[in-house]
UniProtKB/TrEMBL annotation:
Keyword Methyltransferase applies: no
Protein name: HTH-type transcriptional regulatory protein TyrR
SMART domains xrefs: AAA (SM00382)
Domain Sigma-54 factor interaction: 88-318
Length: 404
């Protein structure tokens, strides 16, 4: 059973939902808590029992609606039971390197810190790490740390005792650390947590124990922590906004996910998959995409990464009148038009790989004339220093040749 619970944030809500599921002897397979919405998955049950459970959850205070997700939508959603590394679509060597490293650390108990810009697939990797671990049969819970204020975040993570504070649920409640015991807890946007919560999280990682708010009793834990951030934690360390001891506890296995602009070859794999997904979801005929439109997508920088690409493809599927998506069907939020190189390349007979390589080499040659160190060049192009060196080597370019 998979459901989406719309709610008004309050302390104790997760506990109240868990209590209803316990009454019906349902284990939580997956739970993601965000602001005003909770995604939940349990084992399959009969339609009659599902109606009873949904109605019981609707009666919980602060819940505005409970939406069951049918089998069709479930196939289009990523859950711990379906996410494996081989299903992460990619064509680039950088993503393959990330997947290879993730596979190696999936079977261990070490903490993983996933780094990457917004929309690069950090939660997808976290679910794959869990699915590939010995804990795969246990719960995978996810929490966006930026979605909740400090006091609510602390109670959701650590739980509380009866009467711990004004508004506390009678009987107290278990936090996500307890609910994920034996499984995996994914903490997204870890760079957003306050110094107070940082100190408490550090103790969890060191002692593998927690105390509920208002309690002196320690509870032993067996939870694997996977964290993620799109922030520059090293700069936060330097500025005193993130604890060094917590950083080293979290950063045992660092996993870097490159932005889409640094792995444009993945676009040619992702676009057909998104087309198929949304054509089916929106009850459209099988759709294709023109070479001009694909080239335009390949040339765009995608500041929102895969999430933005998926959004644009869904929008195009809604707007296209025929069965082939054209450039005009791809409406971008930015007023900046596609590069004029797009039109020129679209009229050629070259492959997308050849078009991309020629364009990339041309941009590098132009940039070499203005920036005289590889680090300045990397900053100007918005890619990593290592990425610049690899590309210069690939095209046989250097700073001396640019002055010739």
């Amino acid at each position: 059973m998979r459901i989406k619970i719309l709610n008004i944030d309050r302390c104790g809500l997760v506990f109240d939902i868990s209590r209803v599921l316990f009454e019906y002897q349902l284990n939580i397979l997956y739970m993601q808590v965000e602001k005003n919405v909770i995604h939940l998955e349990t084992k399959a049950i009969s339609p009659e029992s599902e109606l009873l459970v949904l109605e019981a959850i609707r009666q919980i205070a602060s819940i505005t609606d409970v939406l069951p997700l049918n089998d069709a939508s479930a196939k289009n959603k990523t859950t711990k039971s379906t996410v494996i590394f081989d299903e992460i679509l990619h064509a680039s060597t950088t993503m393959q390197q990330a997947i290879t490293m993730a596979k190696r650390c999936a079977v261990t108990e070490s903490t993983v810190l996933i780094r990457g810009e917004t929309g690069t697939g950090k939660e997808l990797f976290a679910k794959a790490l869990h699915a590939g671990s010995p804990r795969a049969a246990k719960s995978f819970l996810a929490l966006n740390c930026a979605a909740l204020p400090e006091n609510l975040l602390e109670s959701e993570l650590f739980g509380y005792e009866d009467g711990a504070f004004t508004g506390a649920s009678r009987g107290g409640k278990a936090g996500l650390f307890e609910l994920s015991n034996g499984g995996t807890l994914f903490l997204d946007e870890i760079g957003e947590i306050s110094p107070h919560v940082q100190a408490k999280l550090l103790r969890v990682l060191q002692e593998h124990k927690i105390r509920r708010i208002g309690s002196k009793k320690e509870i032993s834990l067996d939870v694997r922590i996977i964290a993620a951030t799109n922030q520059d934690l090293e700069k936060m360390l330097h500025d005193g906004r993130f604890r060094a001891d917590l950083y080293y506890r979290l950063n045992v296995v660092p996993l870097f996910l490159p932005p889409l602009r640094e792995r444009r070859e993945d676009i040619s794999i992702l676009v057909p998959a998104f087309l198929q997904q949304y054509a089916k979801r929106l009850n459209r005929d099988t759709l294709t995409i023109s070479s001009e439109a694909m080239t335009a997508l390949m040339q765009y920088d995608w500041p929102g990464n895969i999430r933005e690409l998926e959004n644009r493809i869904e929008r195009a599927v809604n707007l296209v009148e025929g069965r082939c998506i054209q450039t005009e069907d791809i409406v971008m939020d930015s007023k900046k038009p596609f590069s004029p190189i797009v039109t020129e390349c679209a009229e050629s007979k070259k492959t997308l790989r050849e078009i991309l390589d020629e364009t990339e080499k041309k941009i590098l040659c132009q940039a070499l004339c203005h920036y005289h160190t590889s680090r300045k060049l990397a900053r100007a192009l918005g890619i990593s220093h290592t990425g610049v060196l690899q590309k210069l080597h690939k095209y046989g370019l250097d700073f001396a040749s640019s002055q010739a």
